[in-house]
Amino acid sequence: MMKNRGVQSLIFTGIATEMGAELSARDAAARGFYPIIVCVSSMNLDSHDRSLANLARLTTLATSKEILACL
């Protein structure tokens, strides 16, 4: 339905970067969307940092301020 409406990018936010955010962003990319990661966190800093490093190869990582400036 999103593709039919011309949606090309999805913005992801939330907790557990290494779980929900990364998984959802990877799934979106596999389905042809451009995922943007903003405002994510985790209880485990090492896992969070590894996940962000993985995601940086796949998508754009941005702060809330950067996203709002684009809108």
Write the layout of secondary structure elements.
Layout: E1 9-15, H1 17-30, E2 34-41, H2 45-56, E3 60-62, H3 64-70
Parallel strand pairs: 1-2, 2-3
Structure description:
The protein is globular. It has helices at residues 17-30, 45-56, 64-70, and strands at 9-15, 34-41, 60-62. A 3-stranded parallel β-sheet has the order 1-2-3. With 71 residues, the protein is an alpha/beta fold. Strand 2 (34-41), helix 2 (45-56) and strand 3 (60-62) form a beta-alpha-beta unit. The protein is built from 3 helices and 3 strands, in the order βαβαβα. The protein has one domain (9-70): Barnase, Chain D (2-Layer Sandwich). The mean pLDDT is 86. Helix 1 runs parallel beside helix 2 (45-56).
Features:
single chain, 71 residues, alpha/beta, Barnase, Chain D, three-stranded parallel sheet, 25% strand
As for the CATH topology, it is Barnase, Chain D
Straight-line N-to-C gap = 22 Å
**Number of helical elements:** 3
The 3D shape can be described as globular
Number of domains: 1
Q: What's the number of extended β-strand segments? A: 3
The portion of residues forming beta strands comes to 25-35%
CATH class category name: Alpha Beta
Element pattern in H and E: EHEHEH
Into which percent range does the helicity of residues fall? Answer: 40-55%
Short description:
Helix content is 46%, strand content 25%.
